[in-house]
Write a structure and sequence with these properties.
Order of helices and strands: HHEHEEHHEHEEEEEEHEEHEH
CATH topology of the largest domain: Rossmann fold
Number of helices: 9
Largest sheet: 13 strands, mixed
Structural class: alpha/beta
Shape: globular
Strand content: 15-25%
Number of strands: 13
Length: 335
């Protein structure tokens, strides 16, 4: 069954996924057993650890939030490093220290994007505890931020942030494969911050006030030349072709339309690896996300542009996170 068919059903009022209810029960039982094993071997880092994850499958905006946290906390004097599973990549050895030039086929798209955006050490390893140890042994980082990994309980964490798509919310609130949930909604009761990306009314399943986040257009960037233009200095006319291989492509297309563009959008699966033909400009401007651009570098021309975005979060919340980290750091130091 195509994944898109399931996804459409999860986020609509379709009833037929309930036929998969026995598989949902099996998934929950296996997940509970797996998490119990991970908890038994959980490793606590000597520095504060933040996990930015989600409770549903698919993209919700975690990576932009990670980049925003890195930027803010660097200004506060922290020396953060990022760890990631490296979804979509495959290496013959781990851990891997990522640079903006690292092959996305080895470490995945998001780590390469984050390495370029943040300028901080990024380490990829499916074993996040091993990634964290490597980060601490090879760099001077005093703070670890895990991009995803909410369910990877073998890595101890001090703060958990869950990002939820404001439009899709939690879908039908069922766990896989009946619904999009990786864990039951009750898991939200134990996290430190619930971050809602985009407009959307928080459902009654939230027992705490969610934090609002939005993705703000930052600049137009031409990867080939490195030229960057302010949003008001649009480098093309009204009509563009837009491609997106992210969790919610329509959100990207909507943003472009809100900027006054007529968009011919083409959606691809999240973490999709593009071919030359997929991104061919054919004489017309092509706009893509930063996450997709890192996978297409060899084929990009002057007709290709990236819309860079940044995550906007209430500064009061960011300051609250900073203060909590200071307390955690003190406790770990005095240990």
């Amino acid at each position: 069954m195509p994944l898109k068919v399931l996804q459409d059903a999860w986020y609509s009022r379709a009833r037929w996924p309930l036929l998969l209810w026995p598989l949902e029960k099996l998934y929950l039982a296996l997940a509970a057993r797996d998490q119990k094993k991970k908890l038994q071997k959980q490793w606590q880092a000597p520095v504060p650890v933040i996990v930015v994850g989600n409770i549903t499958v698919g993209g919700t905006g975690k990576s932009p939030l990670v980049a925003a946290l890195v930027d803010y906390l660097k200004q506060k004097g922290w020396k953060p490093g990022v760890i990631s599973r490296g979804y979509g990549g495959k290496s013959d050895h781990y851990p891997v220290l990522v640079t903006p030039e690292t092959d996305t086929g080895v470490v995945g798209d998001e780590p390469v994007m984050l390495a370029g955006q943040t300028g901080v050490p990024v380490v990829v390893d499916p074993d996040r505890s091993r990634a964290a140890r490597y980060l601490l042994s090879e760099t001077s980082c005093d703070l670890i931020i895990s991009d995803d990994g909410l369910q990877h309980l073998s890595l101890g964490r001090d703060l958990e942030l869950v990002v939820i798509d404001g439009q899709r919310q939690l879908g039908n609130q069922h766990c896989l494969p009946v619904g999009p949930m990786r864990e039951p909604a009750s898991r939200l009761k134990t996290v430190d911050y619930i971050v809602v990306n985009g407009n959307g009314s928080p459902g009654k399943y939230f027992d705490k006030t969610p934090v609002q986040m939005s993705l703000k257009p930052l600049q137009w960037r031409q990867p080939v030349s490195g030229e960057c233009l302010e949003i008001g200095q649009r480098p093309f006319h009204h009509s563009v072709r837009a491609i997106a291989g992210i969790g919610n492509p329509q959100r990207f297309f909507n943003t472009l339309e809100q900027l006054g563009l007529t968009v011919s959008g083409q959606s691809f699966p999240d973490h999709y690896y593009f071919s030359r033909d997929d991104v061919a400009a054919n004489g017309s401007p092509v706009v893509m996300t930063a996450k997709d651009a890192v996978k297409c570098a060899a084929w990009l021309t002057e007709e290709h542009w990236v819309l860079d975005v940044s995550a906007a979060v209430d500064p009061v919340i960011m300051q609250d996170i900073h203060q909590k980290l200071l307390t955690i750091q003190k406790e770990k130091t005095n240990g």
